[in-house]
Automatic annotation (TrEMBL):
Pfam families: HTH_3 (PF01381). GO terms for molecular function: DNA binding. This is Helix-turn-helix. Residues 17-68 form the HTH cro/C1-type domain. Gene3D superfamilies: lambda repressor-like DNA-binding domains, Umud Fragment, subunit A. InterPro entries: Cro/C1-type_HTH, Lambda_DNA-bd_dom_sf, LexA/Signal_pep-like_sf.
Amino acid sequence: MKFDKEKFSKQLKFVTQNINISDYAEKCGISRSYLSQYIGKHRGNPPKPEILEKIADASGGKLDYEELMVTAGYLNEKHYEERKNMLKIMRHYREGNNLPEGLKDELKHKEILPDYEELLPVYEFENRIIWEDQDERDRKSNFRSHLKDYFAKKIAEKSDYAVKVKDNRFKDLGIHKNYLVAVKKCQPRSGKKVLIIIKNGEENINTIKRYYRLDNGKIHLDPSDNSESIYEESEIRVIGEIISIRGN
């Protein structure tokens, strides 16, 4: 996936057409020159995900964060389009229309992470909306509201997933049995703990690792469960970065 600087420039021009660039940059917490360089297509590398999130938040709904992540090359466009289509289908259903045959069964709540006990319903996984007869915004709001019973408000509002660890396999990372883990869906930073799926043939291994991106583009996961610790990016799927851990 490549950074589409032409499209990113158009997105920025669209959102700044009725506002001074300096004012918009200030709302984003970035410099005017930094923003202007992207508008002028002078930068070859995309902003970091956290900057894209600020740009989207400052737009007042005119720019979608996930769409910016697609433009930047962080997210797969196909998955993004599938997610948008799924939302359209759900709106279609809520308006009293019938779903296509078999789709409701496909959308029913499934066990999300077999190796973990769920703390709370996950509102989204692998770009698929978990079936609930509830507006997506309300569902996300309710999930995070419930999470405030376990984590600080700031952590709860940033979290997209929450799991309760069943055993002590992650004690080397300071995560013990029955600990609660809050996870934010994002591009992981090197050295951070992540909730991750390692693809092993037809079997997927759900685990928690410390994530390191190497200079050669490969991924080092620590601690290693076996002799294998270096992976191609295609061999893993990062669910999100762990932003808080709560013990008993």
